[in-house]
Amino acid sequence: MFRADAPIALRRLSRSDFAMLARWLAEPHVARWWNHETTPEAIEHDFGPSVDGSDTAEIYIASIDGRDFGLVQRYTFEDNPGYLDELSPLLEVPGEALSIDYFVGEPDAVRQGLGAAMIRTLVDATWHDYPAAPCIVVPVSAGNTASWRVLERAGFARVAEGPLTPDNPIHGTAHFVYRIERPRTAK
Known about the structure:
This protein is an alpha+beta fold and about 190 residues long. The protein contains 6 helices and 7 strands; from the N terminus they run E-H-H-H-E-E-H-E-H-E-H-E-E. The longest helix has 16 residues, at about 115-130. The radius of gyration is 16 Å and the shape is globular.
């Protein structure tokens, strides 16, 4: 059992996490939205470049009391100009902004408040690690109620909605876009 009141620790993804990551990606509550192949070759292809540093996405494993439970990643829009282009009909996003992706992988950790705590932990670190970042912008499939609600619990506000390419083709193009601004006190 997870203690929701314990601090969340984030550590960079490593290849030793790949078997656990494949298991998480195969969990029905994750697979429905992430749509990743889970073979060792596919995991290496999709996540190896971030581990090696040749992909600028920073991927973290979240743990509580030493037990891994989820994944959160962040990346800048400057490093993903195609993403900026896709979002531009819905809202203007500064190039210095970041986006995140996330999931709680352990089934017994779902619906315990850990997703929002994990996101808040990364958001707080982002203000420190990226002093020029004015905000974090996250598009979410409108059908993924759990995902957009966890963003709301983490302090994000819905700022736009409209059609975007879904991560999983079985989902429609309807998306909500959430944003959190850098606090005035964050430096």
